[in-house]
Amino acid sequence: MNQDTRRKLAGVSAATLTTVLFKRGFRNLFLQDVRPLNPNAPRMVGPAYTLRTIPAREDLDRLEAYLDPDHPQRKGVEECPPGAVFVIDSRGDARAASAGGILVTRLHRRGAAGIVTDGGFRDSPEIMELPFPAYHQRASAPTNLILHHCADLNLPIACGGVPVFPGDIMVGDAEGVVVIPADIAQAVADEAVEQTALEDFVQSRVAAGHTIRGLYPMTDAANCSLFEAWRREHGR
Amino acid sequence: MNQDTRRKLAGVSAATLTTVLFKRGFRNLFLQDVRPLNPNAPRMVGPAYTLRTIPAREDLDRLEAYLDPDHPQRKGVEECPPGAVFVIDSRGDARAASAGGILVTRLHRRGAAGIVTDGGFRDSPEIMELPFPAYHQRASAPTNLILHHCADLNLPIACGGVPVFPGDIMVGDAEGVVVIPADIAQAVADEAVEQTALEDFVQSRVAAGHTIRGLYPMTDAANCSLFEAWRREHGR
Amino acid sequence: MNQDTRRKLAGVSAATLTTVLFKRGFRNLFLQDVRPLNPNAPRMVGPAYTLRTIPAREDLDRLEAYLDPDHPQRKGVEECPPGAVFVIDSRGDARAASAGGILVTRLHRRGAAGIVTDGGFRDSPEIMELPFPAYHQRASAPTNLILHHCADLNLPIACGGVPVFPGDIMVGDAEGVVVIPADIAQAVADEAVEQTALEDFVQSRVAAGHTIRGLYPMTDAANCSLFEAWRREHGR
Amino acid sequence: MNQDTRRKLAGVSAATLTTVLFKRGFRNLFLQDVRPLNPNAPRMVGPAYTLRTIPAREDLDRLEAYLDPDHPQRKGVEECPPGAVFVIDSRGDARAASAGGILVTRLHRRGAAGIVTDGGFRDSPEIMELPFPAYHQRASAPTNLILHHCADLNLPIACGGVPVFPGDIMVGDAEGVVVIPADIAQAVADEAVEQTALEDFVQSRVAAGHTIRGLYPMTDAANCSLFEAWRREHGR
Amino acid sequence: MNQDTRRKLAGVSAATLTTVLFKRGFRNLFLQDVRPLNPNAPRMVGPAYTLRTIPAREDLDRLEAYLDPDHPQRKGVEECPPGAVFVIDSRGDARAASAGGILVTRLHRRGAAGIVTDGGFRDSPEIMELPFPAYHQRASAPTNLILHHCADLNLPIACGGVPVFPGDIMVGDAEGVVVIPADIAQAVADEAVEQTALEDFVQSRVAAGHTIRGLYPMTDAANCSLFEAWRREHGR
Amino acid sequence: MNQDTRRKLAGVSAATLTTVLFKRGFRNLFLQDVRPLNPNAPRMVGPAYTLRTIPAREDLDRLEAYLDPDHPQRKGVEECPPGAVFVIDSRGDARAASAGGILVTRLHRRGAAGIVTDGGFRDSPEIMELPFPAYHQRASAPTNLILHHCADLNLPIACGGVPVFPGDIMVGDAEGVVVIPADIAQAVADEAVEQTALEDFVQSRVAAGHTIRGLYPMTDAANCSLFEAWRREHGR
Questions:
Q1: E strand segments, chain B
Q2: Across B103-113, average pLDDT
Q3: Measured distance CA(D37)–CA(D35) in Å, rounded
Q4: Chains F and B touch (3+ CB pairs under 8 A)
Q5: Mean pLDDT value across residues C115-127
């Protein structure tokens, strides 16, 4: 993704993005039941690099599985491109971990933009301390071998009830994660910047005690003029 | 509601109120799976002003719906009386937002006593910063049009699995929200103040290392005497 | 339990313990959907003392039930041995409380090592302030009589989907609670200390920017040598 | 609704109707988790007459409530127009009944076209014997007063996760129930008859051993010719 | 239980019993999500004989566990008194079986009155063929050792979200199972016979085309007279 | 798979197979919440041919998607080998159909051994009439495009919470579906035939009124002798 898009998306909220996507007919691109471990971590923006799991099988998912250098979880953590978001399809199952502190730290050190699972992370108290955006359903101490068989890398997956294709742009804030289809990321970013200016203006008016009537939506021409003035004043 | 009731209810906990209500035969007046966004917000006390939703329909729930000045959500936010609690029946569905930062701010500025939904709010990081009691199930960024059709105002509703009639008294603390039927609010408030005095005394004894035997419940006459003395001492 | 085991278990994480237990064939000893009220409370270690509940019945579960000095909840709180963990089988149902601030304070004062339920606690804002490890599913204000009939003490129970036998060792950290069968507690503690040393070394290497290849798992002999040196240096 | 629409809708399946509605942008008009008690009952077609419930309250929902001649459940059963479908919003809660054999029999005798709830019916073994379309989630013996407070009649409701407006056309077959917005019922009926002809032809070809390639969807012109001949032959 | 009570309870429905129990203040005595395998089996009436399970543990729940002649499941099947109902607390978990065809057949041959679990049975196609009342949540092939550890016999248990004390009277029909506290079984049976006569009369009037107004509830004196006549005529 | 294995597996139950697999350490190979549409259909035995879905996306999942001859659902139905079982990963989501009557008929005509989804089928009343084993969670009329994006063919998938690798042997009876890892299918089939003989003998003894003590498990040598005689007599 280009740096302009990345910069723009880092300045808009997940909520605003869902509105922009809704205008284009998308109703299901916010990950359900996935939340930030550290709400004070930086905003997350980056293309999806995906790991897919299926339920574990006792004969395959033993500790020895990690001796295989091509084990998808371990391979993925070392090959996820800098700037990308590592997204794990854990089938919404948080009864065992999707990953833990060591792998999350490694991704952080390798320059990944964040990590997302619809399951849970172990070592969550440590991960909460990292200045690295990580999103999951809930903390989950058990080792992933109990429940998850890592199947493959960089295929389309489900995460949080949402379709995620490799290369789709993941944006996360303190509220959660939204997925933007790769081919419209630039256009959505542009429109979201505009939408954010509008919402910030509306919010400032409402905080100052004004009614939402004629303001939200902006059906009163007087408010349109005030908005134009506000944009000039704030350079937005 | 009168100011004496409001003052008394602001000084008792949701937990104590459920005990008082249980004594009167009420078993289901605590909202399930509804929690405060800002546990440090002021205590919430006020009569319910209700908004009811049903599932959205694609031909009705478009952005243009808000152009209608009688759209129930927008109308309700402007008409909810000062001192009242805005309560939304979202059918327990938090996959899209029930409302967002702008509307919550408007309610706060208009003097509402709080806002409650059994769905979720968007812009939740901003709402958490407001000195305004807001309660939901979980954060939810998607715009409400995706899932919720606002049907009408001030009818009896379900919220968090509990019946809420307009005018019922909503009381919220850092633990959650309890509903008091309007016709018994004064009596419940009076009894809850008594019950709170008792519990505070018991808690102080237990914190000082005393056994709960004969104290909780207070079957030992010696404890009754101590309690009377404690009430005099603390003016309660 | 002996003090050496207690000390060792207080220094390892729930996550590490699930790995050690998985090596021994145990897949289901981490309590699901049970979380700390106060993540900054001390680590919890102690043998389980259990309370079992079944659904309440209106003719039995009235306030007068507590007048019985043998009511299992009240009796248990006074008889739970110092150093033990009070574990409540609430059938995973948090719609009413399993216990409240007074009983939790009493357990704390009596020297219990912690309290766990797969339901919810009332007075949770107060409990969060105690320097005492308490774990539940979610806050729940309603009095327990609405939903829970306390059946008996110190029988094997289910808690968080996990079997808990009286005397099993409960270990809780900021992530959650793991149960260790009593007869292997010492061996598991020993192995977990070793495993923790290994993981701390690996984590320090990864934090310093090294690859996980050959390190995690440690298939590279060079890393083994580094680990040995690290152990000597850190006295572990 | 006119008799032509009724006749046409009685001859098409719920599945086919969802396809026709999907083409018009409707994604959520099939009632989830609602199934026929008697799969051999006649097809159900008729406009919705709605009853709305909220959770019961112990002081209001006593047996004496039925002494009120305006109790919405009892009033609705006597006032539901012949040919209409009685649709109950039970908030998806089947832990107590929405209605029982006596009321369902009364509706049948009064000429209603069917009854639907997203809760459960009691006396279900008797209802299964009636030649009357009835749909629910699962059998539920407990009297409705335990859980449901009947709030009002003929307002828009939620049922099975779907919006139902009074007058919308309910169509039920052995698979379940679909809702057609009133204003498009005629057009949807017309299109569904066409779609059914197409699907019946396709099904007959597939049953005869032909490939779906070029047939489903019908991209092969040869199949289009065969279909035209089939329509003439079968008078459809 | 005496034979008069047994005979009376065999002639009334689970639905009617919940009404009689509701009049006495009981709101939660119908087993939720528990259904008959064979709706054509005889009516089930008998005192509860209980088996309690907790989650399985890998070191205890091996096939060898059955070598112990005191294994509670096997012991219970051989010791359940003739005429009693074998009730299993499976914690509502049907992912593995609570019992299978062999044990159910054995209970049938030993003269038990029925078997109930809130989990599932394996060999369900065979059990459906037996002229023996069996109730579960859903069919479940996996052997119970995977999930259930049989803990003890004849203690109070939860089943289907309902409290069941040994000796309580279990009554099951084609709709489901209701529990009657032992000490009121005779009185409830008597009242249910009366209630059934009333409901049968009402149902016959409604089936004949009469309104429910003044009939259900019977506020019209004319209907009371008709009812008296009907009782004399039918000897009820 | 060879014909001997197929024949043997066609003669044993899903329940028996879970026992044989449990002895080998497999605890999770029975599909949860997946049931036969037609319990009288033939037994299902065959290697898995898999279709994977992710959540639908509005811009991709339109009716035009089927114009693509490589659409995985349509392609898979035409390419699934005779004798194979078509297994669909629907992420356990039955809110829209996984497939319908036309595709199921086509698979039947092409000689497939059965079809399985952990979602739902539409046109279920028709599918129930086919002499073809089909398994799903529940009937679901809505077209699959609403919810399911068909991603790819013949990769490892999750179905009913169980890992299914292409080529694994699917066995279904009137109770449900079990998956046997391909490499042990022959051995499991052999052992299951032995286990079935044992269980049939035990069942015949129990049906004749004998105790399970010493019989199940068979710790009494006298029973072992009887079993040997029974095997000779019945040629098993």
A1: 35-36, 44-55, 85-89, 97-99, 114-117, 120-121, 134-136, 148-153, 157-159, 162-164, 169-172, 177-180
A2: 98
A3: 7
A4: no
A5: 98
Residues of E in contact with D97 (CB under 8 A): 15
Looking at the complex, report in whole angstroms how far the Cα of residue D7 sits from the nearest Cα belonging to chain B.
26
pTM summary value: 0.98
Task: Tell me whether residues E163 and C54 touch, CB distance under 8 A.
Answer: yes
Query: Which segments of C80-143 does DSSP mark as H helices, in order?
Result: 101-109, 124-127
Tell me if there are at least 3 CB pairs under 8 Å linking chains E and C: yes
The yes-or-no verdict on residue E145 having pLDDT over 90 is yes
Please judge whether E15 and D105 are an interchain contact, meaning their C-beta atoms are less than 8 angstroms apart.
Answer: no
Burial of A82 (0-12, 13-18, 19+ CB in 10 A): exposed
Tokens, residue A160: 């949080």
Confidence at F49, pLDDT banded by 50, 70, 90: very high
- The secondary structure of B133-197 as a DSSP string is -EEESS---S-GGGTEEEEEESS-EEETTEEE-TTPEEEE-SS-EEEE-GGGHHHHHHHHHHHHH
In chain E, what residues touch D95 (CB-CB under 8 Å)?
Answer: 32
Q: Nearest-CA neighbor of E33 among E175, E173, E137?
A: E137
φ and ψ at F85, to 5 degrees?
-105, 125
Cα angle A117, A122, A124; round to 5: 90
Contacts of A199 in chain B (CB under 8 A): 102
pLDDT per residue as tens digits for the range E52-68: 999 999 999 999 999 99
Percent of chain B topping pLDDT 70: 100
Is the preceding peptide bond at E217 cis, omega within 30 degrees of 0? yes
Q: Is the dihedral of CA D110, D116, D122, D124 positive or negative?
A: positive
Distance CA A160, CA A30 (A): 8
The answer to whether residue D1 scores a pLDDT higher than 90 is no
- Is residue A100 predicted with pLDDT exceeding 90? yes
What are the chain B neighbours of D160 within 8 Å (beta carbons)?
A: none
Cα-based distances in Å from C68 to C61, C99, C100, C150, D200: 12, 17, 19, 12, 71
Specify the length of chain F in residues. 236
**To the nearest whole angstrom, how far is the Cα of F127 from the nearest Cα of chain A?**
28
Residue B153: both structure tokens together: 């105002």
pLDDT value at F123 more than 90: yes
> What 3-state DSSP class applies to E156?
coil
- Model pLDDT, residue A202: 98
Interface touch B28/D55, C-beta < 8 Å: yes
* E115 touches E104 (CB < 8 A): yes
As a whole number of angstroms, the longest Cα–Cα distance in chain F is 70
pLDDT at A16: 98
Q: How far is F195 from F15, CA to CA, in rounded Å? A: 11
Cα separation, D92 vs E152, in Å, equals 36
* ipTM topping 0.90: yes
3+ Cβ–Cβ pairs closer than 8 Å linking E and D:
yes
| The pLDDT of residue A1 is above 90 | no
Average pLDDT score over residue span B219-223: 96
D28 chain-B contacts, CB cut-off 8 A: 55-58
- What's phi and psi for E192, nearest 5 deg? -70, -35
Kindly indicate the confidence band of residue C79, based on its pLDDT and cuts at 50, 70 and 90: very high
Summarised one tens digit per residue, pLDDT across range B54-79 is 999 999 999 999 999 899 999 999 99
- Identify residue D17 by its one-letter amino acid code: L
Q: How confident is the model at residue D82 (pLDDT cuts 50, 70, 90)?
A: very high
| Whether residue E1 has pLDDT greater than 90 | no
DSSP string, A15-68: HHHHHHHHHTT----BPTT-EES-TTSPPEEEEEEEEEEEE--TTT-SGGGGGS
